[in-house]
Predict the structure of Methanol dehydrogenase regulator (MoxR)-like protein.
Amino acid sequence: MTAISPHTQAEDGAAQLAALRQALVRTRASIATTVIGQQSVVDLMLIALMAGGHVLLEGPPGVGKTLMVRSLARAAGLTFSRVQFTPDLMPADITGASVLVPGADGRTQLEFRKGPIFAQLLLADEINRATPRTQSALLEAMQEGTVSAGGTTMDLPQPFFVLATQNPIEMEGTYTLPEAQIDRFLFRIDVPYPDQDVLTGILTATTGTEKDKLTQAMTASDIIALQGHVRSVPIATAIQQAVARFCLATQPGGETADKDVSRYVRFGVSPRGAQSLVISAKAHAFMADRNHVSVADLRAVLLPVMRHRVQVNFEGRAANIDIDKLLLRLFDQTMGKL
């Protein structure tokens, strides 16, 4: 048997990496044929996909949140399922339930019927329309990738992603997501209204005879391979230490807490939040075709990773504290001259 030389293995690895990068570029271009504008939102969704995290999209109705998720599923070649969250939705409507079915011997027996959560990409539409009890049904699935029912734990298909949409909390009929659940989202992405040029393009593309040109450009195995490459992107120890300093600075009552944090912040960034920042920065660096994490990568994903994890208290809300500005100031202070 002829041994494979290290040189040949390196060439094969480089070729595979180049093919994955090309697949990522094609996926991005394919989504752009259907989702007009919102390129920064689409890029963040792709970064979350590579980082293996879940995404919460927040914006007013009608700005294309559901369309973006559907387009991502089609372009990435993932099995797709959608759940419309409503106040009367039950946990079993998401995870599935055991039902009585006739057996071969004529006797009835219990059989588990899988719910819509058994898909590679789950769209939880208007998640904050459902009650907290139903929202919590997603907790185990989002964190562990499993569903427990009838004393049995079942694995979800891999890769598994939850992309949830929610309307602004100020709108009627919404329920605030519990802190334990919202912390499990890698990103919270704000989806704004389009500007005049983008809106004109949307009207041109969607009110005429032009057909949908979106095509599949990636597979589930490509995504799993991308996740492995993202985790191998190196990050300097000094940058990791700066991330740790930043997270500690957001925690009220800590020795290094900022004075505004101590006064206005209810709770700061957890270790999970620090992990999310680093893995997201690695994915951002990979997408930018860089082989290491820079401070610019961290800053690029800072707000989507952190804005839903740092919560202001009553005094902070009364003072109209801008959490984005506070986070950016703390980030610049703790990163120093890196």
